[in-house]
């Protein structure tokens, strides 16, 4: 046998050695049974409001510092928080003037660090029905005693929704309130949207100090409107949450 034949034969022997195989012994089944997993739900009674969340960083709790912050509603579908709108002290003007609101001051989760965020409203839907909801707002005119800021117009624009959830409702880019007006749509959450916690901000933050102003929340006052010095004019905004979306 020549050298090439010997090499080929040697390769077959080695290959044959590597293919040696022993079949495993199969386990015999001797029986089976079943177990269960279960969960029971109860309705959120809504007596404890959801902690206000950072509208610019959803899911992170904050503590608003406004001592006169609005009272939250109750129930599994509820309004957790609404910013008051402060325009501060302004010099009287006889010309048409538009004033910008202050940002909303909150404390971050450490309870110490101040942060300024746009004016916002927070809604929680823990009903579990996925039926949807609608948020509307109306107001009366700014008054100080018997004195009214005739013709004053409060505007919210550049609305932005935020949540850790993804089933997004629809918001309205601008809301205009001229006093004694009918309900204006703010958010509409059709069926299968708006579950969980949602914030709706107006504008973005351009400064982190107490004097920073939000040009997305404004109060326009005609120059000819009578203005009484050293008087605080107040408007009451009524926010209405219903379970009847469009």
Automatic annotation (TrEMBL):
Signal peptide: 1-27
Keyword Signal: yes
Coiled coil location: none
Pfam families assigned: WxL
Keyword Iron-sulfur: no
Record InterPro entries: WxL_dom
Compositionally biased region (Low complexity): 46-76
Keyword list, A-Z: Signal
Region (Disordered): 36-76
Boundaries of every WxL domain copy: 29-245
Record's protein name: WxL domain-containing protein
